TrEMBL record, chains A, B:
This is Glutathione S-transferase family protein. Residues 1-79 form the GST N-terminal domain. PANTHER family: GLUTATHIONE S TRANSFERASE D10, ISOFORM A-RELATED. It comes from Chelatococcus albus. Residues 88-225 form the GST C-terminal domain.
């Protein structure tokens, strides 16, 4: 059986969990705390980041986009109409552009700040940079998320799903990052009805269930977090 | 003819210039200063980043890794043994892992600091964040580059090229980022003979010539920058 090394509130890990669930794959999930820099984990992935997908035969595939490309190449054709990366080169460009948008830009602007400051720092030792959250980082994330929410709404208004007619990796990436911010109550859904309607649709998919069941020890989610009609 | 919107000292742009040259493509080069946030450029790429590759027929392909995947899908098969992304899934994972390593990790740790502080800020207006360099950022980059140079040396010692037997996108990404730091005199080549020997090989390729001819107005490169036997 394959294995996924992940952290429950790492948005890149959440993306891969959604992808695997949409593909009907159920790997063994191993929680990894990347800030602990566990030696055997660093040997596997010198970058020290989650997620890392490991095939039963031992092939190590690190990073959300590398995993997405790999799974499409090795399992994509068998998914037919449920394939998450389209066939057409121009459509692939659009999906990958949005993967970069969420996994790099949204991450740098919003989700990394929120998750590190509000969650990781609770569990990190002080020698690793743990401690109380930096409020200026949280304020920056809360300002930035409004712009990103409008962009999601803009895309959702003109297309069925974010990259076009069908559900793709782009939707799963956007939803993974937004779901982390949403747990923390930091997504102003009322500012964009289109974005909210798109998120309600994706949140209702069976692939989302395990994410909605995750809890940070000692920190309840926003009241509407697991509510499908928020 | 295709067009590449690039900035000469943006490492992501340099990567795509190297890729295009290795593929024998000669697009029109348009210098774009991303910090000016030119309206027509933002319409083309809402992320506002270079590089952006535009096909003669108008298809817009933004971002170094999206361009690399697109060019491999549309031109890769015709390159035969000069293809820059291997066929085998496990080998593709290794190339893409290293693309992430250099385009995200090396960029965040080293090249973005150096290029922004030493070059971009010379040309940015003060309203856009221009001005004198932040020396603490430069010191961080200079400390981090040593670790990355050792990693390049480690890979170069056990393989012919960084990802395996053949030249791949991974070499071009590593060389693109290192070349920016090298222009600024911030690569301690003497600390790693293997990395230096690998860089001397890649720097001697014809695809590198146009990068070695680039100059920042009013700022000469390090003495060995264009020297193939540095």
């Amino acid at each position: 059986m394959a294995t996924l090394f992940h952290y429950p509130f790492c948005p890149h890990s959440r993306f891969v969990r959604l992808v695997l669930a949409e593909m009907g794959m159920e790997p063994t999930l191993v929680e990894e705390r990347p800030w602990e820099r566990r030696r055997d984990f660093l040997v596997m992935n010198p970058a020290g980041t989650v997620p890392v997908f490991v095939e039963e035969q031992g092939l190590v595939v690190p990073g959300p986009q590398v995993v997405a490309e790999y799974l499409d190449e090795t399992r994509g054709l068998g998914l037919d109409s449920r394939r998450l990366l389209p066939e057409n080169p121009a459509a692939r460009v659009e999906v990958r552009r949005l993967l970069d948008w969420f996994h790099i830009k949204f991450f740098d602007d919003v989700s990394n700040y929120l998750v590190v400051e509000k969650i990781y720092k609770r569990f990190m030792g002080s020698e690793a940079g743990g401690g109380p959250p930096d409020m200026s980082a949280i304020r920056a994330a809360r300002a930035n998320v409004r712009y990103h929410l409008r962009y999601v709404g803009f895309l959702a208004a003109k297309r069925n799903w974010l990259a076009g007619a069908d559900l793709t990796y782009a939707d799963l990436a956007a939803a993974a990052h937004l779901s982390c911010a949403d747990y923390l109550g930091d997504v102003p859904w009322d500012e964009d009805e289109q974005a909210k309607a798109w998120y309600a649709r994706i949140k209702s998919r069976p692939s989302f269930r395990s994410l909605l069941a995750d809890r940070v020890a000692g920190m309840a989610p926003a009241a509407h977090y697991a509510d499908l009609d928020f």
